Amino acid sequence: MPNCNRCDRYFNSWSAYHQHIQNSSSHWLCNDCDEDFASWRGLKEHYVQSPDHHYCQYCDIHFDFSYELRNHYEDEHDYCHSCNRVFKNEVGLHEHNRQSHADVYCVSCRRLFQSPSNLRAVSFTSFVGLHSI
Known about the structure:
This protein is an alpha+beta fold. About 45% of the residues lie in helices and about 20% in strands. It has a domain at about 1-40.
């Protein structure tokens, strides 16, 4: 006889037990992985941390492929391509770039450059342009 330990209930059949798991407010099921979580937060953490899920926690959207999720991040969120990280807003991304990519990030124009020498060249050109007026 199937038993649900979380709800302290017994069922007459496996189909009744599975129906309980699907419909109960005490169970949050990942159908893809066949894992049961005690809360929505637990299920959401599973989606976010599992490499088998391509899930945007900000929009609560599942994607079929990782590239679709990455495209979504690029189009809809403040996203660092180098680190593959999403930030809550532009300020978060700016601070990340300022701290993590200081050698290639121009704080004043908020641009990332491909190399430190490219950043220095643009900075020097801007400096000379400002002082030649």
